[in-house]
Write a structure and sequence with these properties.
485 residues; five-stranded antiparallel β-sheet; five-stranded mixed β-sheet; 56% helix; rod-shaped; binds adenosine-5'-diphosphate
Amino acid sequence: MWKRVKDRIARLSLLRSLRVRIFLLLVIMGIIPGIVIRVVLLHNYEERAVNVRISEVSNQFKIIANHLIHYNYLQDTSSEVINAELDQIATLYDGRVLIINNSFRVIKDTYGISEGKTIISEEVMRCFKGENITYYDSEEGFIEMAIPIQRVSQEKGADMPVQGVLLSSISTDTIELTINILEKKAFLLEVVMALLILATSSAVSYFLLVPFHKVTRAISEVKEGYTDDALSVPDYEETEHIVDAFNQVLVRLRTLDQSRQEFVSNVSHELKTPLASMKVLADSLLMQEDASLELYQEFMTDIAEEIERENKIINDLLSLVKLDKTNGELNISTVDINELLELLMKRLRPIAQKQNIEVVLESNRPVTAEVDEVKITLALTNLVENAIKYNRQNGWVRVTLDADHQFFSVSVEDSGVGIPESEYEQIYERFYRVDKSHSREIGGTGLGLAITRNVILMHRGSIQVSSVEQEGTTFLVKIPLTYSK
Ligand code: ADP
């Protein structure tokens, strides 16, 4: 039982090979038609040969039946001519001929054993009614015929009385012999054909799949790191499609790998900078043997600032990593966006006031939407914080909320330094800053917009920036009112 199951599994796994399938298909298509043609042709030949034999013999017997009438054989069987003719035809067709007269008595048997006997069989009776009877026994290999002996009428359609019956059985051995010979030859031909088909199928199935092996080999080479080039296997359109798709994946993987490396080196660099500053501050304090308390306080304030900065970078990094890790996992609830923005502005207003920047919220309509409240607050806070950070003294920030039947939009406008058009795309990259020293000075980590864009994309929304340098910047965020996965 177990062995049978195992065998079946092995057989199935063999069928999973495309090469085996192509091979089997070719074999089946090559061999089966041959067998069908042989069987049909031989059967047709047999039918035709038997029909020809029947019509040939029945013609001969009809002539003899005429002779029998002519020589009055049914009354007198002594005619040498007729007897010789009957014996000759019996020998010619390797059969037996019986002549029965109208009292159902056998008056002639070419075998000479049934003469004088009476035969009242169904065929004889039907034949006496004028019917020609033919029956072919393919199993035993003979044809049986019963032909009425009657005078040929001069007028068409007029029935002449049946005076006797010519009963015969002739062998079809010669036909069978021919069929046997043909069968043997056809079989031999089939075996030769089958061998040829097996050989060609095996070769064709092998060569057809060569390009696929090439693809596998090329992919393995990439996997093992032998080549950095794009693959090319142009033999078939199909392999080209596979390779194209693979090359695209390869490009994506390489870009990902590169951006991961960049990210790691950026992170280390960003984390090292505050540490380096702290070390310089601490070292210079230690070098001064009699440093005053004020100097200590001043340096320690600077060190605390650097710690604060380091802390901010780590916090931003953690939120970004968390966003990446929980990609798609949003804590969706129905949120009043007007209220969310009001709260957000209330928190940021004191920071703006330090630079005497006026912050206004314009709400065109009440908006509620299905969003992750914490994440959206984080995203929008970053935008408003930037609008304050990259502003000028006595400037302004205007936040506008609007909605249509599908989306709500928040635009954050400022009167700040602006962003050059060439930087529109890069500002969303991690650690990217337009003006590095300025951004550092005001405590930027370069991660804010990366976080914002991630959150907005998770909500299936969009973010756009437009800006005029030294005049101001506008960020426009659009987010669907209802969340769909
Ligand atoms: P950062 O922490 O440095 O602010 P962000 O990712 O939030 O990092 O922003 C990236 C860079 O884009 C900033 O360093 C700044 O140069 C530029 N930027 C962002 N928002 C504004 C804005 N409202 N006006 C001018 N420049 C901006």
